[in-house]
Design brief:
About 35% of the residues lie in helices and about 25% in strands. By secondary structure, the protein is an alpha/beta fold. A seven-stranded mixed sheet has the order 3-2-1-4-5-7-6. Helix 3 links the parallel strand 1 and strand 2. It is globular, with a radius of gyration of 17 Å. The N and C termini lie far apart (about 55 Å).
C-alpha cells in the first residue's frame, strides 16, 4: 500500500505521458476579447462554457446549448458555484434547421467540442454555426483524433480531420489555424 504522497507521484507520473484537452490552453491560442458573444454547441457539463464565460467577462455572454436537461443543470450549477452570471443555458436540438434558436449573425464564436461525432446530421449543425456567426466570426472545433483509441468513442464513429475540414469548408468556412489540443484530440479555428 502506498502513502498518499507516493500515490500522488505515481498518478502524476502516469498523467505526464498523455495530455487531455484543456480549455485554458485553447483560450490562450485564440483572440477572444471581453464582451464577445459565444455559443457552445453541445456544451455537455460546461467544460468550455465556463472557461469562455470567464474570458468574455461580464460584458460578454455564453449560450450553453445542449439537448440533455441534465447537462444544462450541470452547467448552471457549476456557474452558480463559481459566481459566473453570463451563461445562458438552453435546451435545443442542433440537428434541426434553426435548432440553436439564436438570432442570425449574432455570435462572435461558436464552440463544438466532442459533439460532431455524436450526431448524424453534421452538415446541419455546421450550417447552423454559419447562420448564427457574425461575418468574420469564428468556429472552434475539437474532436477525438485517430491516434489513440484507449479512451474516447469507438473508431467507427469518430470524424477524421480531413472529413471535418471538408464539411466545414463546404459550408463556406475558411481554416484560420490549427490548435494544439493534447494527445487525444485535434482542433482548429475556422472563420466565416
Amino acid at each position: 500500500m502506498y502513502s498518499k504522497k507516493e500515490s500522488s507521484k505515481i498518478k502524476n507520473k502516469n498523467m505526464e505521458t498523455k495530455s487531455f484537452l484543456d480549455p485554458e490552453n485553447i483560450l490562450s491560442q485564440m483572440d477572444i476579447s471581453p464582451g464577445s458573444i459565444v455559443a457552445d454547441f453541445g456544451c455537455g457539463s460546461g467544460f468550455f462554457s465556463l472557461a469562455f464565460a470567464k474570458a468574455v467577462g461580464g460584458e460578454g455572454k455564453v449560450y450553453s446549448l445542449d439537448i440533455l436537461p441534465s447537462a444544462l443543470e450541470s452547467v448552471e450549477s457549476k456557474a452558480k458555484i463559481e459566481g459566473i452570471t453570463n451563461i445562458i443555458a438552453q435546451r435545443v436540438n442542433l440537428e434541426k434547421e434553426g435548432g440553436s434558436k439564436l438570432q442570425e449573425n449574432s455570435n462572435d464564436f461558436v464552440i463544438m467540442k466532442d459533439m460532431l461525432f455524436q450526431n448524424k446530421t453534421k452538415d446541419m449543425i455546421i450550417k447552423e454555426a454559419w447562420r448564427v456567426l457574425k461575418p468574420g466570426g469564428k468556429l472552434l472545433i475539437a474532436e477525438w483524433n485517430d491516434k489513440d483509441y484507449s479512451i474516447g468513442p469507438d473508431r467507427e464513429i469518430r470524424i477524421s480531420k480531413n472529413e471535418l475540414e471538408e464539411l466545414v469548408k463546404k459550408q463556406g468556412f475558411k481554416l484560420e489555424k490549427e490548435l494544439t489540443t493534447g494527445d487525444f484530440h485535434y482542433g482548429a479555428v475556422f472563420i466565416k
